[in-house]
From TrEMBL:
Putative odorant or sperm cell receptor. Its main location: membrane. Keywords: Cell membrane, G-protein coupled receptor, Membrane, Olfaction, Receptor, Sensory transduction, Transducer, Transmembrane, Transmembrane helix. This is Olfactory receptor.
């Protein structure tokens, strides 16, 4: 417990409740999930880079989305796994806490912007296919990705700075498995209400700002698909958007529950569950969403497996 006269210079992460035996079981489960996440998203990145059939804006964005998923899970999960192996509480320095929170929020914001851009890309592909290659040329795609990364990292500088301007003198016990902002506010001796409200408004702008083009794009996409006369044509048009739409529902849904709320200091158990969904489950599901629901990616993977089998036989 910290003195009420000074701010914490390090935090003790309480992590998950339960016995050490339960922690070992959770370690095995989360380690397996993390390994599958890394392998699955790396496979997507590799095939997008090497296979000419996937040299299009949609898969270019997908490769960057997979890279972001690897980053966001790697910022959280390795430290969480290490905490599960430790017999006591895990400590993290103030500098490491600042870095972790900043990277987590910055990568998450970058992902929001990129997902919104992918929705616009799907809109152009379905609603304006004849001009698709002109509008979504390589120059445009590169700039979209650059803007996404730059905006994501610049937009989170002030929120993280504002979070750590408070004095954390109530305690240095952080009831979470990483430096989560809501739990940090609980340790502050100052009045965080105004800062929390400003951060809520910023979260609304970022999330709704990236969700708006997604909603508009899919409104036009669905309208266009319904006008296609043949069932096979409608099915083919929808298949180009199904994976992205599924990811949008899962990704935005979980983040809306965690960050777009006026009061950041909610129950620790609630924040842990939603944080696990964002940092473990969603990155794990990403490769399956974009492979099992995408015929072209499945075709590339099948061909890759055949080549590997032929090399082994030879």
């Amino acid at each position: 417990m910290m003195s009420n006269l000074s701010s914490a210079t390090e935090f003790c992460l309480l992590g998950f409740p339960g016995s050490q035996e339960l922690h070992y079981i959770l370690f095995v489960i989360f380690f397996f999930f993390y390994s599958v996440t890394l392998m699955g998203n790396m496979v997507i990145i590799v095939i997008v880079c090497v296979d000419k059939r996937l040299q299009s804006p949609m898969y270019f964005f997908l490769g960057h989305l997979s890279a972001l998923e690897i980053l966001i899970t790697s910022i959280i999960v390795p430290m969480m796994l290490w905490g599960l192996l430790l017999p006591g509480m895990q400590t993290i320095s103030l500098a490491a806490c600042v870095t972790q929170l900043f990277l987590y929020l910055a990568v998450g914001t970058t992902e929001f912007v990129l997902v919104g851009a992918m929705a616009v890309d799907r809109y152009v592909a379905v609603c304006n296919p004849l001009r698709y290659n002109i509008i979504m040329n390589s120059h445009t795609c590169i700039w979209v990705v650059i803007v996404s990364w730059v905006f994501g990292f610049l937009s989170e500088i002030w929120p993280v700075y504002a979070t750590f301007q408070f004095t954390f003198c109530k305690s240095n016990l952080l009831d979470h498995f990483f430096c989560e902002r809501g739990q940090l506010f609980k340790l502050s001796c100052g009045d965080t209400l105004f800062t929390e409200f400003v951060l809520f408004l910023m979260a609304v702008v970022i999330v709704i700002g990236s969700l708006a083009p997604t909603i508009v794009s899919y409104t036009y996409i669905i309208s266009t698909i319904l006008k296609i006369p043949t069932a096979s044509g409608r099915r083919k048009a929808f298949s180009t958007c199904a994976s992205h739409f599924t990811f949008v529902v899962i990704g935005y849904g979980s983040c809306l529950f965690l960050y777009v709320k006026p009061k950041q200091t909610q129950a620790a158990e609630y924040n842990k569950i939603v944080s696990l969904f964002i940092s473990v489950v969603t990155p794990l599901m990403n490769p399956f969403i974009f492979t099992l629901r995408n015929d072209k990616v499945k075709e590339v993977l099948r061909d890759g497996m055949k080549r590997c089998c032929q090399l082994v036989r030879d």
